[in-house]
Design brief:
Keywords: Membrane, Transmembrane, Transmembrane helix. The chain is an all-alpha fold. The protein has helices spanning about 5-25, 30-50, 55, 60-70, 75-80. Helix 1 packs across helix 2 (about 30-50) and helix 2 crosses helix 4. The longest helix is centred in the middle third of the chain and has 24 residues, at about 30-50.
């Protein structure tokens, strides 16, 4: 297993924990930290989506590619080379 697929799996687990926290909130200090971390990661990925908009322009399944960038950020963009 290479590092890129490991990081993608770890980020998938993070998003699942963040989604779980929305439906079944964790205890007070941990739940707030998870929400803030998810917001910061999402904002960073939106920034990456805006920065690399031209790179995603001609790809098939453009909306699917953008969703992948929102979830995985640079990890997905590195696979598009």
């Amino acid at each position: 297993m290479n590092l890129l697929s490991f990081a993608t799996g770890a980020l998938t687990m993070f998003w699942l924990v963040a989604l779980l926290n929305l439906f079944y909130p964790f205890a007070t200090p941990l739940g707030g930290w998870v929400n803030w971390a998810a917001l910061l990661v999402l904002l960073a990925h939106v920034g990456e989506l805006l920065l690399f908009r031209a790179r995603l322009q001609g790809l098939p399944g453009q909306w699917w590619q953008r969703l992948q960038v929102l979830l995985f950020g640079m990890l997905h963009l590195q696979r598009l080379r």
